[in-house]
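for the recovery benchmark. tokens below, seq after
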């Protein structure tokens, strides 16, 4: 991430997920098998995103790992003391009053919505938002938060797999709608962007409910406008987190580094495909 640490250990977990997922994705591109190499002190405390936790997740997902055992390399007791002191210093880092959590974020809209004739608005709301509500209710695990404005949809998920599942179902449902009956072009398609990152959960006094804010919410919003209609684009962080979560039902196909909207920089992007899609 490009933001400050702010004492949130979840950033270590995020980094571990990216290492895990990107290694697997890169290995697939090269038709080979990845190997995790760790340098681990067996006596070190178990911490979020630490080497032990990362290696455990890797092996649990079926990966091969080799470890350089620091205990066998020690010459004297100084290393143990220095290691323990370092961990204590890490644990003493001042924590922020409101910690960030890892969430998967979805932004979606319809290409050409601004041309919707006024008289079709009530029916559009009924069909489009009604379909979104039905899809959200069909998920095994509900979304953490959802907001709409016009054709814009912002949904927050606890897991990347749930976000991918909803995105695929949404895209399929949008293709099945008779858009000409709603005053739009027959080839109207949804643009869906997905990203994973650390965000703040805050209370919105205007809406009177909890919501999510932060740089990564903005980043997802800047991704959605550049998505090709009818497609689902995901960031490198989302693709890697999906792999690290152990979800293999969806395909992530690298399409390159692309500039985001409103001069928000470039991002390595993947196209998300549904199960069985060519």
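predicted aa per position
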């Amino acid at each position: 991430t490009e933001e400050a640490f702010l004492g949130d250990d979840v950033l270590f977990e995020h980094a571990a997920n990216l290492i895990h997922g990107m290694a697997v994705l890169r290995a697939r591109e090269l038709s080979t098998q990845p190997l995790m190499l760790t340098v681990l002190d067996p006596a070190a405390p178990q911490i979020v995103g630490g080497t032990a936790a990362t290696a455990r997740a890797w092996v649990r997902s079926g990966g091969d790992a080799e470890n350089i055992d620091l205990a066998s390399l020690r010459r004297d007791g100084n290393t143990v003391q220095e290691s323990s002191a370092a961990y204590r210093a890490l644990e003493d880092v001042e924590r922020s009053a409101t910690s960030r959590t890892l969430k998967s974020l979805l932004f979606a809209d319809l290409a050409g919505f601004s041309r919707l004739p006024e008289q079709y608005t009530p029916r559009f709301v009924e069909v489009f938002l009604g379909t979104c509500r039905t899809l959200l209710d069909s998920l095994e695990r509900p979304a953490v938060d959802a907001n709409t404005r016009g054709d814009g949809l912002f949904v927050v998920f606890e897991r990347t797999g749930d976000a991918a599942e909803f995105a695929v179902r949404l895209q399929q449902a949008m293709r099945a709608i008779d858009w000409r009956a709603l005053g739009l072009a027959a080839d109207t398609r949804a643009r869906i962007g997905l990203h994973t990152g650390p965000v703040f959960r805050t209370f919105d006094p205007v809406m009177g409910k909890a919501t999510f804010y932060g740089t990564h919410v903005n980043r997802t919003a800047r991704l959605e406008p550049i998505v090709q209609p009818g497609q689902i684009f995901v960031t490198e962080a989302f693709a890697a987190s999906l792999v690290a979560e152990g979800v293999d039902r969806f395909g992530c196909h690298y399409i390159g580094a692309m500039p985001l909207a409103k001069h928000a920089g470039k991002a390595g992007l993947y196209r998300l495909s549904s199960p069985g899609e060519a």
